[in-house]
User: Which sequence fits this backbone?
């Protein structure tokens, strides 16, 4: 609700979601850690390159991947350089294409009824 109330009011220093969230929560960095999401809700894919061991240990707990610096929509062939990053890009494409297939199936079913 807070996001919806402020989406057209607060400026974003970079025009994106990160700038908006920083404007909405300007003290997040200096606030007590209880006000922050656990890292598995915003795990950057560059962690793969920095610490493969950490990724393997915590991989099953991860909930949200922050594709940084490479974005999967810029990598339709899943050639992300690092095999683990390439795998995540392929997973992203698989989910996207599944959504399109589901939409197409739903559209076809509506047209036949």
Assistant:
């Amino acid at each position: 609700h807070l996001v919806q109330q402020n989406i057209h009011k607060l400026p974003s220093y970079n025009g994106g979601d990160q700038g908006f969230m920083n404007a909405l929560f300007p003290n997040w960095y200096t606030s007590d850690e209880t006000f922050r999401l656990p890292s598995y809700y915003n795990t950057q894919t560059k962690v793969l390159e920095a610490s493969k061991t950490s990724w393997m240990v915590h991989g099953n707990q991860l909930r949200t991947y922050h594709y940084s610096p490479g974005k999967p929509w810029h990598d339709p062939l899943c050639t992300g350089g690092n095999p683990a990053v390439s795998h995540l890009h392929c997973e992203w494409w698989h989910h996207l294409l599944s959504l399109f297939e589901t939409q197409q199936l739903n559209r076809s079913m509506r047209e036949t009824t």
User: Anything to note?
Assistant: The first helix runs from residue 2 to 6. The chain has a mean pLDDT of 79. The beta strands are 43-44, 65-66.
